[in-house]
Amino acid sequence: MMQNELLSHYTSNLIEAGCDEAGRGCLAGPVFAAAVILPRDFSDDVLTDSKQLTEKQRNKLRLVIEARAVAWAVALVDANTIDEINILNASILAMHRAIQKLSQLPQLLLIDGNRFNTYPEIPHQCIVKGDEKYLSIAAASVLAKTYRDEYMLNIGLEFPMYNWKNNKGYPSKMHRQIIVEFGVTPYHRKTFRMVK
After folding, report:
1. pLDDT tens, 56-114?
2. pLDDT in tens, 168-187
C-alpha cells in the first residue's frame, strides 16, 4: 500500500480514534502511546507509519496532526511499570491512558497490532500493520514516536554516556556496550536482556 493510499476511515459513520505505541523494543525509557481522531476529510500525501518517515518529516507531521485533528492525546508508561506488568500490557495501558485523555469520546478504536484489552464501553478493531493502512493510526504512530524521542533527548541529558540522543534507548551495539561498561540507569527496563 502506497503512502497516499492510506484509508481515512474504517467505518462509514462512527467517530474513530487510531491508536499506536512507540518504544516497545527499547532497553531504556518509557513506552509511549497516542490516540488520534482525524476529520473524515483528512488527507496527507506524506503521512504513513512513522518508521518509514525521516525525523524531519515526523516533526513536521506532528504539527499538522495537532493542528488538524479533532482530538489527540499522548500518554506513557514508565520503565518500572513495564518491568512489573510486561511490555505488552504496558503498551496497552499506555493506549488506554491516551484514549482516556481525549477531549472527545470515540465510538470505535482502531488499534495497531493484534492484541488489545477492551477499553470500557468502546469497541475496538485490531489491525496488523495498521499504521501502514489507516491515516488515524499512522497519525498516532507519529505522535507517539515524536513525543518519545523528545522525552529520550531530555533524559539523555542526565546520562549523556548512553547516547540516547541517537539510539533513543533502542538496543544498538553501542548502547549494549555502554551498559556493560557503566551498568544500568533508573530508566532501564531491568527485565529486558541488556547484553547478549
Report:
1. 999 999 999 999 999 999 999 999 999 999 999 999 999 999 999 999 999 999 999 99
2. 999 999 999 999 999 999 99
Q: Could you tell me if residue 188 is inside a domain?
A: no
Q: Name the residue with cell 518508521.
A: 51
Scored b (16 or more CB within 10 A) or e, 21-56 reads bbbeebbbbbbbbbbbbbeeebebeebbbbeebeee
Name the nearest CA neighbour of 143 among 46, 41, 62.
62
Task: Collect all residues with Cβ–Cβ distance below 8 Å to 180 and sequence separation of at least 6.
Answer: 195
Question: Which domain covers residue 121, as residue numbers?
Answer: 3-182
Burial (CB count within 10 angstroms: exposed 0-12, middle 13-18, buried 19+), residue 148: buried
**pTM score of the predicted model:** 0.95
CATH number at residue 171: 3.30.420.10
